[in-house]
Amino acid sequence: MRVVMFGYQTWGHRTLQALLDSEHDVALVVTHPRSDHAYEKIWSDSVADLAEEHGVPVLIRNRPDDDELFERLKEADPDIIVANNWRTWIPPRIFDLPRHGTLNVHDSLLPKYAGFSPLIWALINGEPEVGVTAHMMNDELDAGDIVRQEAVPVGPTDTTTDLFHKTVDLIAPVTIGALDLIASGQTEFTKQDRSQASFFHKRSTDDIRIDWNWPAADLERLVRAQCEPYPSAFTFHKGKRLEILAAVVSEARYGGTPGRIFYREGDGVVIVAGADARTGRNHGLAITRVRTEDGRELGATEYFTSMGGYLTSRP
In terms of pTM, does the model score above 0.90? Predict the structure, then answer.
């Protein structure tokens, strides 16, 4: 088929590479300009550079809503548009333009985790698996019929970076497999159960600020979710920002006030956690590695030279 591709960052780059390696013909690529947003400088392989290396025309847009773009799309005469990690709304006059509509590739197991940062949200929430879904685009965000979907398990120590590498390798088989089904003439696909749908926003500084009222298991997953190269989860100690680079759920149970710097356990220092920590039934978060405001990385037992005091959500 003749394809126009909309995409950005490494997800878009992998999608374009899969299309270039396939039997399909890429007629035009549309991508976003480079961004200074913290999450958009991560996994930032250039879609534009890859397209230009292969002689494919490129248009740079924040939003695909201008008449010049629409005319270029009509001239490209695509059988289908393929989109992956396109960050703004695509209007109906564009997604309905090709003969076969628009196939969107999303890095979650739809209908759950529509929207932004699905791997981070899924890891924080303790999902047992993540994956990639190719679905037909319609008026609602990430809500169209599913053409192909593949899943991978989430391991007990997986970070978001681990899950990125697991799922990014699914992009090519999911995308090309879906296109092959469409090219074969199939038009009936799996409708999403909208009662199971969930939508998530872009992550920001407040989303990585540690709330010690969370249970320790949730905080441990937050630390794994906000691993390098993502911004690290953080708290405050004596008024200064302290990033938590590594942590585990404590072996013992600790009672008291959430945020209390309590006890050395193995290689870690246990912080009391959970809104009901006063009951003494909760495990704590055993921090093992931190980064200080001046950029020093230290083992927790080296940083916390004495027990007592509190970690807080704000200075």
Answer: yes
